[in-house]
DNA sequence: AATGAATGAGGCTTCATTCAT
DNA sequence: CATGAATGAAGCCTCATTCAT
């Protein structure tokens, strides 16, 4: 496998990846998630990631990924896949928009308690993107799409009379920022009760969004 | 001037800095703030900062500052000095705790409109600290002290019946995170209306904190 | 190969080094010995060593060795290995303590004639250690151990009536110093007859140590 | 005063130095001796020397001395002046060549006890010379002249029947090396009794040189 | 697939020196 | 005389990447 054929491109081309190939890639991505969560995006060097993956050479990472950006894309994609698998059922278990918002907030922090590194990795990678970064643009757009979906949901909630009047974009960014902040705090404060903080945040944003009679 | 005598130490020793010395240091700090805001903490190399400051070599930065940490300390100190000078009068112009909270939020984003790089630099530096970073610990503690003061204010507001019942730490961190998020967005979206977003955020957290009868 | 796993550590871990790995390391060490002997410990920069080893960048040295100290450790270890292999049989070929002392002195200078750089490198590295140098402490202790062994031999010689009464430590340090001095002289005086000087020194210290009836 | 007119050149030109000029130069030389003795020749940077001399800028050293080599020349000249003033009367107080040799050895180590840094500085500077060093050649020649004088004395002692037959050059270099070794040891071992070691060394070389009946 | 080796760029620091004031 | 500032070189180190095997 040539590195320049990144995983996504290959799938688009319809060629199946071998088991080992998939395995190694996944292993590297998993190690990258851990390392990024531990030392941050910039300090997560190929050397550290290879070491954690049990590889004796950073060359293998360059072999499997078409550069650092490609690896980081996979890191976020994998972490988001896990997050989505965890959150979607919990959110869709509720009917009302307000309950779903609460489930989303609390779910994120329950997820943090269960997978301490995934949300941190997402935050690190996305937080270190710069406007001009080529190759990562599609990424920002992906996140934007998710946010746009949530905005749509909130708008429906407002239309349904569940939420008061506010700018959904500002609200949802504030929620995301508050969650990410807890994720960062959890990194340095092992004793932090993420779930309790999640409930507190859910209460906070419930007051900020609900329609007062 | 010996670099290892950082500005604060020198002042503590009572020795006055020469005009030029102060000037170059300030110029380097100002350049650092700009570079950090533009490319981020990790990518803000001495080379880029020196170039922006009109210096021909990175050696001059090592000459004026006792290493990267020392420079970053000055960066945050300077940015916080500016922010404090801007925000304090605006906040203290109000009597009620709720009004002061609103003034704080809106003030931060007005400040962002006026000094687009200072808050970004603070966020970048503090956001890239890791638990074990020696030499920067005093910094985290400094921020914690500011937050603790605000927590105390909020508690008084709760006691005074202006605010409803919530965990002040969680609330204030959420506010800080929301503001920092706007700061980051402003970096990549030149068209963003920071002041309007400030008012929206102030409304949001007003609903989240105010006592409902 | 990870540089931070120095050769000794790796061997302790039981992992075999590849042929090339050993080769390059050995080549770098050999080049370092030459450069150190030529320009001295402090002026033996990675750049010079890399150049002599046919490497295009100093990065390779950092890749193979965990810093300057690690390289210097290997330099001394290798030079001492060679010296030991050369001297031990020559010394142990003799029975009496006096003859062994003579063999040791003459052997050192014969070794100098054969390997002009090894003793010089040892002297340069050890001579540039300072008390507080961390990481090199084990080294000084290693040399001290060798000296302590020789002291013990001399004491036995005294007990056996071969040597007169003197402080073995002072004597052995004087011998070592005299040998090292010749090593340094040989560096700048190509015409020096090391072996003849060795015999002269052996005579000198024979008179200084032998029991007079 | 222009640095390029070094002290010696100026005296040769017959121009008197001002008091301050002489004072500063002497102060810098004295500081250099201390710093060199403490951290070694190579690590004795202008910065450290200036700091110890109470100067706030290394520029003053470049102003007073025509480069590092010039300073080092003065360091050795000054240290040798002190050593000569101390040793000469002690040596000349004796008549026999053997007694003078003993006085020389013991005197050097008494000197070490009294001026712990001067002999160390001499040894550091001279020990770091390399053959090709331009500008320092005159220096080695100076030392060689001293040694040549001592050699002459020893030859006379041999002719007078006080000493046995040996190569005076080898003997005197061995003595010098042994003394310098004690000087280096004294640097790292504060408890060392230099005078006692001096007596032991004097005994050693007395046995090595005296005529046995 | 995997490894170890190599590269070249870039990072921060220290140094001796020069210069305007 | 003295200072602080500036320079340019050199030093060691880390990094992502490439390549032969």
Commentary on this structure:
The structure is a homotetramer of 213-residue chains. With 213 residues, the first copy, chain A, is mostly helical. Chain A contains ten helices and no strands. In chain A, helix 5 (68-92) packs across helix 6. Residues 1-20 of chain A have low confidence and may be disordered. Chains in contact: A-B, C-D. The interface between A and B is large, with 36 and 35 residues. Chain A binds a DNA duplex (21 and 21 nucleotides) through helix 2 and helix 4.
Provide key terms for this protein.
homotetramer; 213 residues; mainly alpha; Arc Repressor Mutant, subunit A; Tetracycline Repressor, domain 2; 2 domains; elongated; disordered N terminus; DNA-binding
Structural classification of chain A: mainly alpha
How many strands appear in the DSSP assignment of chain A? 0
User: Quick one: overall form of chain A?
Assistant: elongated
CATH architecture of the largest domain in chain A: Orthogonal Bundle
- Quaternary state, please? homotetramer
| Order of SSEs of chain A | HHHHHHHHHH
- CATH topology name of the largest domain in chain A, in short, is Tetracycline Repressor, domain 2
Number of domains of chain A: 2
CATH superfamily of the largest domain in chain A: Tetracycline Repressor, domain 2
Q: Which band does the percent of strand residues of chain A land in?
A: under 5%
Most extensive interface, residues per chain? A-B, 36 and 35 residues
Biased composition (Polar residues) (chains A, B, C, D): 1-11
Domain HTH tetR-type (chains A, B, C, D): 28-75
InterPro entries (chains A, B, C, D): Homeodomain-like_sf, HTH-type_TetR-like_transc_reg, HTH_TetR, Tet_transcr_reg_TetR-rel_C_sf
Region (Disordered) (chains A, B, C, D): 1-20
């Amino acid at each position: 496998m040539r590195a320049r054929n990144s995983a996504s491109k290959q799938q688009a081309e319809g060629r199946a990846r071998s088991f080992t190939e998939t395995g190694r890639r996944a292993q590297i991505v998993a190690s990258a998630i851990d390392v990024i969560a531990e030392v941050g995006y910039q300090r997560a060097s190929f050397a550290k990631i290879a070491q954690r993956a049990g590889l004796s050479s950073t060359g293998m990472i360059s072999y499997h990924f078409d550069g650092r950006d490609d690896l980081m894309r996979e890191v976020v994609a994998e972490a988001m896949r896990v997050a989505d698998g965890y959150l979607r059922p919990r959110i869709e278990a509720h009917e009302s928009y307000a309950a779903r918002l609460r489930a989303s907030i609390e779910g994120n922090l329950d997820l943090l308690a269960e997978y301490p590194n995934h949300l941190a990795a997402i935050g690190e990678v996305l937080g270190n993107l710069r406007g001009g970064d080529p190759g990562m643009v599609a990424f920002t757009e992906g996140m934007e799409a998710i946010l746009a979906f949530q905005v749509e949901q909130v708008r429906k909630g407002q239309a349904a009379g569940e939420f008061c009047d506010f700018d959904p974009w500002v609200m949802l960014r504030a929620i995301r920022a508050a969650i990410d902040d807890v994720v960062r705090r959890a990194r340095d404060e092992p004793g932090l009760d993420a779930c309790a903080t999640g409930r507190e945040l859910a209460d906070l944003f419930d007051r900020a969004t609900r329609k007062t009679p």
